[in-house]
């Protein structure tokens, strides 16, 4: 089997090393040798692994036009030109393995259609959970189930930050700096901390679990940059842990609820034990009940592990690609949740009645209200609602923010008991 | 696709219902209908689900000799005559799906060989973790890895008992009775509570993960019936949780360490959050690192979910069966572990020095020693060793048991920091 590798960064280098290191075993399992014939890169000045010697090219056509290459492995990242290369490879009848979340989340539907027409594989296990096996378990092992809910911790950077904040009592900015130094967060961490990375993976999971296609930018997404030490502490006191959750559910009318949002989860939830850079995906099926997959969602070798498994699968299986259909997203305003709200108010008589009055007018009832130590002029107020309509909550938050008694709404976090 | 179902008990009935309930979806996915043509049972007087009407037979040949039946689904249980029926079905060129741990653990090697010769599938996902997807993830998703360690909570009954003992502060016998009433434990619970069920599943996992065949009865197996409220309490005080762990590891010389034993695990171990009837399997691969699979290891619908996924896979994939080789088990005496030992001694001067003397003579050093409130004539002593040779520990335990100062060794539990 001859491979054209596009990209030799973190993941590409891992793939080259893994095929070298476990090559004998791999050959035994699939009955032939995986040979990396050519490797596409961009920068002529970078030093490469000795295993890449004699294979480097700077021209994608060298791979795409090579008749001997059966499988194109795209690990360059970014939407362009990866999309164009993948498309061309499929058109040429080559199998494609990719780790590219952006391309699959945004263009998966057409690419799957093209692959099905051309009777070739399009495999993308590494794009969702790095090394965590999730795509095959969903497509094969749970094939007899109707899956109706997915909850995931899909981003290692944010989970690392939340874990450190909790364990060391540190504030967001300090942990982020530390994570950047350790290589757990990028120089520009926006994609991770604002939840966009998790939203892309969630979009891919919706495609797999529900056969529903939804663009990641349509998924209501809220990151963790606003979360402070004191939110973590309140959560702890109330018996919860804060996690950045990616959530999707299919309702009785086959409509999709999907969002990425910080959530306080119960200590008894299996996701509570998922710490540091680890990821996990909890799936609910009508026969199997709750199933969870846990592991490293990123990193050189875990990701390479998933990419190479996909390459091996090209030989092992006949092509099955399920199409998927466009779906109506339930507007976030029409969904329901408990909410935790922390705000700073001026410590004046009547402030509490004004705030609770706004909520009452919207029909939102409260589970608990705590007002803590007035900080000179201001006081910190923490409200937890009963299950409420999110649209009403968002309206109420806007009104509360405009009250002259309120300085700032600091945090809005969902609360779940499951 | 025409199916012959052997057995219509818990799992068989689940299979019939699941195919009925999710039939449309299943048909869409595999491109044809699954039709259950005949169902083998034993007892002519039992009431059956209406879905079985007109299909019941009491003669296995009706299924085995039916040329139209492509797939035999064996969910009768017990070693015989299940083994003979499976063998005959494979010889006749029929695919076989089974949930039978005993048959696969004891005869998997020959059956796999036979299936490979006959170019048919032998699928047994449900035999290991009920509904938890584990076989495909191991064989496909982690195919590029060398797997070197497996740790599992493979038995729901014992995990339920340990969880209840901890959460409600109850003693073993009381929880067992309650579990039997609730249907979580059988009338004769020996197979579960003595660890034999876990040992069978571990043997199957060794076959899958390491391609090594080991008979379940050769796996050193210790159950949980000796564990008392006070062990649970000591564990808690020291920061551990007691779990019945099934453990297997391949060493550098390709020898296998495998055992089932109660273990104190750290609260930070992902298995710590696995409570009640849930099972989980933690796999360590050289590329992917630690991966965990979690879900319900038993029950009607979860198990049926795995059986039906196997049936669907018969149509979806070409046959790949990897052979496996006999393996040298590392004798338990040559393995190493920390141990927690709780014993009752007569409260006489010199008793502690005698006990610690025995351990010292065997080269076993101690991490901690606690002697608690002398109970009239006797005192409870809890020892925790550093990592020690298990052979020496077993010898020392024998000598300590023979000391006239010692009434009884109550508990021996492994302790792990990972
Ligand atoms: N890193 C992870 O842990 C991880 C986990 C899961 C999924 N992924 C996904 O895997 C993909 C690769 O990630 P990575 O971390 O390996 O990225 P990376 O380290 O930045 O490597 C990218 C590689 O692609 C090459 N490349 C980029 N644009 C190119 C172009 N236009 N023409 C030719 N070569 C080009 C680069 O060439 P030069 O070497 O010449 O710069 C480099 O070798 C991304 O889609 C990412 O989302 C990564
Ligand atoms: N139950 C679970 O949660 C679970 C989970 C994982 C794996 N499994 C495995 O699945 C298998 C079935 O378990 P189960 O709980 O469904 O067992 P079960 O409820 O005892 O049902 C056994 C069925 O097989 C039939 N049967 C038994 N011996 C027979 C014979 N000699 N000839 C014809 N029919 C015979 C019985 O017939 P009658 O109905 O006439 O008595 C019954 O319908 C076992 O291997 C078990 O280890 C079970």
UniProtKB/TrEMBL annotation, chains A, B:
Q: Which Gene Ontology BP annotations are present?
A: methionine biosynthetic process; threonine biosynthetic process
Q: What is its EC number?
A: 1.1.1.3
Instruction: Supply the alphabetized keyword list.
Output: Amino-acid biosynthesis, Metal-binding, Methionine biosynthesis, NAD, NADP, Oxidoreductase, Sodium, Threonine biosynthesis
Where would I find the ACT domain in this sequence? Answer: 340-414
Coiled-coil positions are: none
Residues engaged in binding NADPH: 101
UniProt pathway: Amino-acid biosynthesis; L-threonine biosynthesis; L-threonine from L-aspartate: step 3/5; Amino-acid biosynthesis; L-methionine biosynthesis via de novo pathway; L-homoserine from L-aspartate: step 3/3
Which reactions is this enzyme annotated as catalysing?
L-homoserine + NADP(+) = L-aspartate 4-semialdehyde + NADPH + H(+)
Q: GO MF terms on file?
A: homoserine dehydrogenase activity; metal ion binding; NADP binding
Active site residues per record: 201 (proton donor)
InterPro entries the UniProt entry points to = ACT-like_dom_sf (IPR045865), ACT_dom (IPR002912), Asp/hSer_DH_NAD-bd (IPR005106), HDH (IPR016204), HDH_cat (IPR001342), HDH_CS (IPR019811), NAD(P)-bd_dom_sf (IPR036291)
Q: What is this protein called?
A: Homoserine dehydrogenase
Q: Which organism is it from?
A: Caldanaerobacter subterraneus subsp. yonseiensis KB-1
């Amino acid at each position: 089997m001859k491979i054209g590798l596009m990209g030799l960064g973190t993941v590409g280098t891992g793939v080259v090393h893994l095929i070298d290191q476990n090559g004998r075993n791999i050959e035994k399992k699939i009955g032939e040798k995986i040979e990396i014939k050519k490797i596409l890169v961009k920068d002529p000045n970078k030093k490469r692994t000795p295993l890449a010697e004699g294979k480097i090219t700077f021209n994608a056509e060298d791979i795409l036009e090579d008749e001997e290459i059966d499988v194109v492995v795209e690990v360059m990242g970014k939407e362009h030109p990866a999309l164009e290369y993948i498309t061309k490879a499929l058109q040429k009848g080559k199998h494609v393995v990719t780790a590219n979340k952006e391309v699959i989340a945004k263009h998966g539907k057409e690419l799957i259609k093209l692959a099905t027409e051309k009777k070739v594989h399009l495999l993308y296990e590494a794009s969702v959970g790095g090394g965590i096996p999730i795509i095959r378990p969903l497509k094969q092992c749970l094939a007899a189930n109707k899956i109706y809910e997915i909850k995931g911790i899909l981003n290692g950077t944010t989970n690392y930050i939340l874990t450190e904040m909790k364990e060391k009592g540190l504030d967001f900015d300090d942990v982020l700096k530390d994570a950047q130094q350790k290589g757990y967060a990028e120089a520009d961490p926006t994609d991770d901390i604002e939840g966009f990375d998790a939203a892309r993976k969630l979009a891919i999971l919706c495609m797999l679990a529900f056969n529903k296609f939804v663009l990641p930018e349509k998924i209501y997404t809220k990151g963790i940059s606003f979360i402070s030490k004191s939110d973590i502490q309140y959560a702890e006191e109330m018996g919860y842990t804060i996690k950045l959750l990616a959530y999707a559910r299919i309702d009785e009318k086959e409509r999709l609820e999907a969002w990425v949002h910080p959530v306080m989860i119960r200590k008894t939830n299996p996701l509570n034990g998922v710490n540091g850079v680890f990821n996990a995906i909890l799936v609910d099926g009508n026969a199997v009940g709750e199933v969870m997959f846990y592991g490293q969602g990123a990193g050189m070798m875990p990701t390479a592990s998933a990419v190479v498994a996909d390459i091996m699968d090209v030989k092992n299986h006949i092509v099955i690609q399920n199409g998927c259909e466009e779906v109506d997203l339930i507007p976030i305003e029409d969904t329901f949740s408990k909410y935790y709200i922390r705000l700073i108010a001026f410590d004046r008589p009547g402030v509490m009645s004004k705030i609770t009055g706004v909520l009452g007018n919207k029909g939102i009832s409260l589970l608990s209200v705590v007002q803590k130590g007035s900080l000179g002029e201001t006081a910190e107020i923490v409200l937890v609602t009963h299950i409420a309509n999110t649209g009403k909550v968002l309206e109420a938050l806007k009104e509360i923010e405009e009250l002259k008694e309120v300085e700032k709404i600091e945090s809005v976090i969902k609360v779940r008991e499951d």
